[in-house]
Design goal:
binds flavin-adenine dinucleotide, Alpha-Beta Plaits, seven-stranded antiparallel beta sheet, Uridine Diphospho-n-acetylenolpyruvylglucosamine Reductase, domain 3, 459 residues
Length: 459
């Protein structure tokens, strides 16, 4: 790092909050995706004012700044692809206030998701988005990626809980958006503009979240299907039956095989397994809902329908689902985890199409995901040392995106665009929408210093 720049940064954050050694630059060079590129160094700001000073300095020197939470992103969103300074927000990790009376929590961006969960638990409240990375990922990262999870179908995603933000703009100005009231239609919805903007428009330095009372009872069941179409129809019928399960997950054949190879859960190796959870405040309430769900499973030719009778059954089933990503990661040297999402009525077609793509390209694709909101995770398994397999993986990925868009869906329901999906943005968004997005980026960040190279915004 240029010595003068380094001294100025130390002047803002202190020696202990700057790192530019090789080991630090390598640590900041990657996230959980296949992308990597080293920055010149990284800083850990502790206040919004420090973030503001850093942005003013970066603007003057025209140096890229890349906001970073825990680096668990799956699309290269926090990868400093054009070098520059990583702005690691993990030391801004205070829960500023929890107000049960006002139903809100105010936090700094570096708070880890599960730490907020732990803080809310004694009050009987929770913050529903529940990303599978919640033990590690930060709330700032969750806001910047609009993270979602198992409970999306019933409870929505991070976006549905952000009431207001404090944001540092690329020119260093500090702005507040939204309000602490449960509803507001005052002015343009600037809060929503920043949610999911992948750190390209501003740096989130404080978040006001709406929180929910936590249901006290849950019931769980599984169903197995020999035919993907039956599983798809069951999902569809459940979602318009009037019952909204708190989770409705799907595991495909390849995923079930991988779980069995790596655990002693001994799951049935069928075309699809569905896992449903209902929640409420009494046992009767959750059981009534689950009864309706299992009736639909049976009506759609489920081979087996099984209710979890004990705590251990419940734990085993959810452990199986939650192990999917990790057990699949062990099968091949490399993998890409996609998160295409389609309208509910198109899930069966998407599942069928994924299997066809896998066969056509001779590459293994294991699928699991959030059936309840149409968000599937096809995990493409390949050997990165074999150039032929890399080519086949890329071709399969591109076809997968075309398939999802063709079905009226989207490139990404959770993991964002970042670098991975940037080349496909124009597949989903028309030229006018792309033009508006590029104009917004230009307006907020005329020198293109904040997380440049992401989201396909550069022409
Ligand atoms: C095992 C595993 C499971 C996962 N499961 C899920 C899941 O269920 N649902 C889901 O949605 N995602 C999931 N993810 C992806 C990832 O965890 C989420 O995208 C998460 O929200 C990223 O948070 P982070 O703190 O790691 O952010 P990072 O990866 O560090 O950053 C992500 C993006 O946010 C920006 N950013 C970070 N902090 C700020 C800030 N304060 N202000 C402005 N921009 C900021 C960065 O610039 C970058 O563009 C998973 C990842 C892994 C590895």
């Amino acid at each position: 790092m240029d010595e003068k720049l380094k001294q100025e940064l130390i002047g803002i954050v202190g020696q202990e909050n700057l790192a530019d050694g090789l080991i630090d630059r390598v640590s900041f060079s990657y996230d959980a995706s296949e992308h990597s590129h080293r920055p010149e160094g990284g800083v850990w700001p502790e206040t919004a004012e420090q973030v503001s000073e850093i942005m003013k300095l970066a603007g003057r020197e025209k140096i890229p700044v890349i906001p970073r939470g825990a680096g668990t992103g799956l699309s290269g969103m926090a990868v400093p692809i054009e070098g520059g300074i990583v702005l690691d927000l993990s030391r801004m990790n205070r829960i500023i206030r929890i107000s049960i009376e006002d139903r809100l929590a105010i936090v700094e961006p570096g708070v880890v998701y599960s730490d907020l969960e732990k803080a809310l638990a004694p009050y009987g409240f929770f913050f529903p988005p529940d990303p599978a990375s919640g033990k590690v990922s930060t709330l700032g990262g969750n806001v910047a990626t609009n993270a979602g999870g198992l409970k999306g179908a019933k409870y929505g995603t991070t976006r549905d809980y952000v009431l207001g933000l404090q944001v540092v703009l690329p020119d260093g100005r500090i702005m507040r958006t939204g309000s602490k009231a449960m509803k507001s239609v005052s002015g343009y919805d600037l809060t929503r503009l920043f949610v999911g903007s992948e750190g390209t428009l501003g740096i989130v330095t404080e978040i006001t979240f709406k929180i929910n009372p936590k249901p006290t009872s849950t019931s769980t069941a599984l169903a197995t299907f020999d035919d993907l179409a039956d599983a798809g129809n069951a999902i569809n019928q459940i979602m318009h039956s009037g019952i909204i399960p708190s989770a409705l997950e799907i595991l495909g054949r390849e995923t079930l095989l991988a779980i069995n190879q790596n655990t002693n859960l001994n799951l049935p190796e069928v075309d699809a397994m569905l896992l449903a959870e209902t929640d409420g405040y009494t046992r009767e309430e959750t059981e009534y809902q689950l009864e309706k769900v299992t009736e639909i499973f049976r009506r759609n030719n489920a081979r087996e329908v099984r209710k979890a009778e004990t705590e251990k059954d419940v734990e085993d089933l959810w452990a199986a689902r939650k192990s999917a990503y990790a057990v699949l990661a062990r099968i091949e040297n490399n993998f890409v985890l996609e998160d295409v999402t389609v309208p509910m009525t198109k899930i069966a077609e998407l599942l069928k199409g994924i299997n066809e793509i896998s066969e056509r390209h001779g590459i293994r694709i294991a699928t699991f995901g959030h059936a309840g909101d149409g968000n599937l995770h096809p995990q493409i398994l390949y050997n990165g040392y074999d150039p032929q397999q890399v080519k086949r993986m890329e071709a399969a990925g591109a076809e997968l995106f075309k398939l999802a868009i063709g079905l009226g869906g989207t490139l990404t329901g959770e993991h964002g665009i970042g670098l991975s999906k940037a080349p496909f943005m124009t597949l989903e968004h028309d030229p006018v929408a792309m033009d508006v997005m590029r104009s917004l980026k230009k307006m907020f960040d005329p020198h293109n210093i904040l997380n440049p190279g992401k989201m396909g915004l550069e022409v």
